[in-house]
Automatic annotation (TrEMBL):
E.C. number: 1.8.1.4
Cofactor: FAD
GO cellular component labels: cytoplasm
Domain (FAD/NAD(P)-binding) ranges: 1-311
InterPro entries in UniProt: Class-I_Pyr_Nuc-Dis_Oxidored, FAD/NAD-bd_sf, FAD/NAD-binding_dom, FAD/NAD-linked_Rdtase_dimer_sf, Lipoamide_DH, Pyr_nuc-diS_OxRdtase, Pyr_nucl-diS_OxRdtase_dimer
Limits of the Pyridine nucleotide-disulphide oxidoreductase dimerisation domain: 330-438
Organism (species): Pyrobaculum aerophilum
Superkingdom of the source species: Archaea
Protein known as: Dihydrolipoyl dehydrogenase
GO molecular function: dihydrolipoyl dehydrogenase (NADH) activity; flavin adenine dinucleotide binding
Family: Belongs to the class-I pyridine nucleotide-disulfide oxidoreductase family.
Free-text remark on how the cofactor is bound: Binds 1 FAD per subunit.
GO biological process terms, semicolon-separated: 2-oxoglutarate metabolic process
Amino acid sequence: MKVVVVGGGPAGYVAAIRARQLGLDVTLVEAERLGGECTNYACIPSKALLHAAEAYRRAVSSPWITGTVSFRWKEAVQWKEKVVEKLRRGIEFLLSAAGVEVVRGLAKPGPGKTVEIDGRRLQYDFLILATGSEPVGLKELPFGRRVIGTREIFSLEEPPASVAIIGGGASGVEIASLFSMIGAEVHVVEAMERILPGLDPEISRQMERALSSRGVKIYTSSRVVKGEEGEGSVKLRISSPGGEREIEAELAVVAVGRRPRPGPFSAMGLEVDGRGAVRVDESMRTSVPWVFAAGDVTGPPYFAHKAYAQAKVAAEAIAGLKSAYSPRSVPAVIFSDPEVVSVGMTEEEAVAKGYRPKAVRMSLSALGKAVAAESEGGFAKLIYDAESRIILGVHIVGRGVSELAGEASALVEFYATVDDLALTIHPHPTLSELFAELAEAALGKPVHIAKL
């Protein structure tokens, strides 16, 4: 059985490898770089530079390090490129080792069950679309020399002394963290009432306080009404509750979101939703029976780990296995400073779904590891159902908490109760101890959290 996968990003290369593991004949078509947006332009580059900036921030603020410390942007970007290249070569190796044929070029649908790539025609029994997503622009602020997107910001030859970020979601907050840590003047313009509007309100408030403490200027309930590029800067006029104001910065970064990119395959008559995302069922099958889709092209959330999960399901379904994409929650992680983990429901969402939620909260300052690593500025919240005591959501903000997302996701996915969690021994001293502390607090017997 012949499978053609279009797109070599997180969804595409994972679908291709899993399909080969199941004995299918697979060809993957990629127009640009293997690894897609995540490996080459977004997830990995941003995390590499954030890691470098965090090292600089710690050196500058540490009382036991003396002497002059400077951040060398060019060297950091060069190191980022080495990281990206290493991971991209790793993907190439995995595809080759699995026996996946890789064809370079832009694919488009051909007659019948075929795709065409630069005059070459490939026939298939099943097609997996993993064509990804693309950034959304602003008509009030078109891209130009000083108005760029989230892809370009991580490859600048020189860092800007000042930057205006349009969008206070995950990407905008990560970019604000990066440049504020290395000393740039940063402005964030967010249309909603708070930054990180889709997350727990306490998380948003904590992040706003953290960014503001480093001098980031945040304008919520605000929109860009006009942008004007000059010789050395860009001027933005924004509309805020207090009236219009002007922001001037060396660069403006548009980070207002992404949209699915089915590309020429939209001509196949695939059913899409109001945002242009390809509709799929639990097996990732589209409205065309022999076409499957996975990753960003199926709509938000635009996470690589969601793409991985959907890709495996698509390949397994094609191979005839019973496989379904039906997670209770897709974990959200923001690699800002501080980091954010959000898994499952907020209290408001739990009420809307008919639960009687209860919440327990703790400061990270109760953890020895957080205090020792100067990471105590944050908190964790656990939400559970009052009757069944099933864990419904976990929300954490603090330095280094991204590594806790996996356990938080497992708790929600497998209907763990606070009783189960309280019986689980967590190693000391680690940040993971917060799970046990929260569970014991929910049961009314906290040891390291004072009962009020």
